[in-house]
Amino acid sequence: MTRAMDVAIRTQGRWNARDVGCALAGAVSLALVVWAASTVALPVNSDVGLVAVLPYPFWIGVLLLNVAFVVALRGDAAGPARLPVMMWLVVVLVLVLFGTAAFVTDVPRGEVAFRHLGIADALSGSQGIDPGIDAYFNWPGFFALLATVLRATGLDPVALALWAPVLNMGLWLAALGVLTRYLTSDPRRRWLVLWIFCLGNWQDQDYLSPQAFGFFLYLVVIALLLGPLAARPPKFRGFRDTDLAAWWQGRSPAESRPGHRVSALVVTLLLVTVICASHQLTPFLMLIAITALTLSGRVWPSWLPLITAVVLALWLAYPASAYLAANPPLAEGGLLAAIEANVVDRVSGTPGHVLVVQARVALTLVLWALAVAGAVRDRRRGRLDIRVVLLAVSPLVLFPVQLYGGEMLIRVSLFALPFIALQACSILLPTDGSTRLPSSRTAGGLVLTCMLLAVLTVTGRFGNAQYDVFTDGEIAAVAAARDLAPPGSTIISAAPPTPWRSEGYLDHRYRTIDYICRSDLSTATCGPLVYEDARRNPAGAVVLLTRSSEASLVLQGESSAGGFAELEKWLSTQAGVELAFRNDDARAYRVTP
Fold it and tell me: 424: exposed, middle or buried (C-beta count within 10 Å: 0-12, 13-18, 19+)?
């Protein structure tokens, strides 16, 4: 009775000093971060990225934000702080962690965002989809949607790419917020899941991409499976055939309204189709998750895994057949090969770059350790939710199957992260659903844990800033190279981190020196290969050498600054090669056949 009165007073009365203080602390934190990030000078020359050049007010802002969140989360006996306060603090966290680069520069991070804009532009101007162009045109769903949105709204594509991480995180958190309502009734735990999910998101897959779009739809599908499409299994009696049959037949739908179940099923099948048409990897992770939940007896439509598999197989057999004919999905794989490509090959390069990779590994291990400890605690108390465990570990099934360019571990950890975060809350916030306030000791430990995760996340996310944060000079050089290169000619960059292909995606042949020369970038071996490749095209070529592309080769240990300068000097002296553009961050050489 007393608690109900407290809740009523707290809901209807004026805001208390704690709520106002937490909201103001969030505003101060955001102001500190924006000011600190805006003072960073480009280019970033540290091989540990932004973490080395962000001034101390940035970290004061991050600390203040985490303290404010824990104070608001602790709240009182009625629960955490008011909904607007909690939402505001989460919004600030998203801006702090995922908008920092946008406060540093108005140029989108990463070469891939530019490339994706170019693909959408190419689709908007074409009469059909040619799957023979490259892999992206075998899964065009996201790009077709992006082209439609840009044309219908008139949005600036560069501005959209710049703020895409913030927008995508907002979508992910909205879906995760709905999803967690089916997994826990504790409001404190639901807010903490969102917070830990942000703090653990070092994977940097929230840029303008099919992966970000697919992951959002994946979370929506999982929410539908845990909500209106969920099933309630009876008590498990054993593994005998009769027991298994009785257990399976004894399931009942969690949603009693058939209309809601049918509507949810229709939406789920639509989303499954869209995911299969938009991304190569997400459909397989979705199929694994749906199958795991169904076999656990927690999904009512038991044939959903089969339907998903059929839709996926049909897409691979027809629209994506051009890509799969040259790239068999199981041609690469195996546990040892996966470990080498995803771990061993990445722990190389300059000491600073290795430190960044180690920070990513440490962050992942910390979260998984907290999740394991939380699972053990829940198991001992009889509260372990098998759905959370299955959704956390099922992505690991795909790790040894396909190397995915050395990025499979990144994708696997991303898809597991929401449920790892939820399971970790059992240790970080042990008072699940209790009216008892979390102790001061628990709150202090939570602040320290959140701050540690924040430092590791900023280090991991922005550790490549030396080559994925571009300057205005590099943007100008790309525009000049595009103007210098006639239609059908070749544009050669040093390495993929180049802000190109956002326009004229189909107008040129794009190559990189590290791809042409493979592992040997020495002048004696690589120089003639690049020169021959450039002169092979009757329409000519432009060799574009930018600061960021060269820095990527140096940081990852594939070349040295002196070695690349020697290669450039050799190329510049060859017949038919002339310097056509130059600024502080790039040079463009015109090569005639």
Answer: buried
